[in-house]
Amino acid sequence: MPDNAEDRAALTNRQLPEMVLSREENPLTVPRPPPEGFTNTQRAQYRFQVKGNAIITGGAGTLALSAAQALLEHGLSGLSLWDINPDQALPTITSLHKKFPGRRIMTEAVDVRDESAVASAVASTVKVLGSVDILCCFAGVVGCTHALDMKANEWRRTHDINLTGSFLCAQGVARQMVKQGTPGSIVFTASISAHATNYPQPQAAYNSSKTAILSLTKSLAAEWSSYGIRVNSLSPGYMDTILNEGEGLERARRSWNERNPMGRMGDPWELTGPLVLLCSEGGKYINGTDLCVDGGAMAF
Ligand SMILES: NC(=O)c1ccc[n+]([C@@H]2O[C@H](COP(=O)([O-])OP(=O)(O)OC[C@H]3O[C@@H](n4cnc5c(N)ncnc54)[C@H](O)[C@@H]3O)[C@@H](O)[C@H]2O)c1
Ligand SMILES: OC[C@@H](O)C(O)[C@H](O)CO
């Protein structure tokens, strides 16, 4: 805290905006039901319409690219896919350009751990798209190392990418949203590993980084709601993606299916409906919460 009383007051005002505002005082949080005169079909479409521009981190990954297509299908105007290896997304981007002519789709090479890279990617995204209204954080890494063998470097890397990287991107984007004075939606990707320990694979670093995302979600929702920024997370169960393929995972995959009431892994497409809900007008009163999309795995 600064010594000077004036600076302290300014800081306090900035850090603690009025939390309880009436609807009239805080138009950013006011619901916007469908306009009078809409047909039933128009009302249904309006509910899950996605407006504005989005940044998706980990944007070359399987779940992110599936999310990108869904947001575009629901009306997203512009999209910036951020990834440490953005070239991996190029074939999908070519096909998205064909499917959604006229929409602006760009990529940025961003390491989400790098605060200044995040700030400059927000600026260049805004320069091209004009605004940022949605942030979906998918960038993440997983490792299967026994805790007794874990090196500090691996532990830190997992937490840096999964937790700190999510925070830095949210902070960079929220600063832009506050500057715009428009409502926004931030969606983190937690995991069922945030709720229960993975089995049989040893993933203490991954699990704890994802559990921290649940707390980050609530903390930022509490701080940023008065700016009209909603913050939520999704907790996917085991999805059929590259992350869950590879040597040694056959036994694990069998075990995951046996322990799932639906007896199967999820398809990336099955995460997109819940994501669209969190980013649309229909999800406007969902804030500071986590939604498990896991076929019921966490139910028993
Ligand atoms: N696949 C699943 O079953 C599953 C389940 C629960 C949660 N998740 C979470 O969903 C997210 C996406 O998973 P996925 O299966 O699509 O994985 P993925 O490996 O296909 O995608 C992750 C992406 O993050 C990028 N990335 C890694 N480090 C980065 C960094 N420092 N900066 C920027 N980008 C970086 C990678 O290049 C990759 O494109 C992850 O956060 C993961 O933990 C996945
Ligand atoms: O809990 C499921 C996921 O978070 C993840 O896909 C898995 O732990 C990777 O092995």
UniProtKB/TrEMBL annotation:
UniProt keyword Nucleotide-binding, yes or no: no
Annotated pathway: Carbohydrate metabolism; D-arabinitol metabolism
NADP recorded as keyword: yes
MF terms (GO), sorted A to Z: D-arabinitol 2-dehydrogenase activity
InterPro entries, A to Z: NAD(P)-bd_dom_sf (IPR036291), Sc_DH/Rdtase_CS (IPR020904), SDR_fam (IPR002347)
Pfam families: adh_short_C2
Family statement: Belongs to the short-chain dehydrogenases/reductases (SDR) family.
Entry protein name: D-arabinitol 2-dehydrogenase [ribulose-forming]
Biological source species: Lentithecium fluviatile CBS 122367
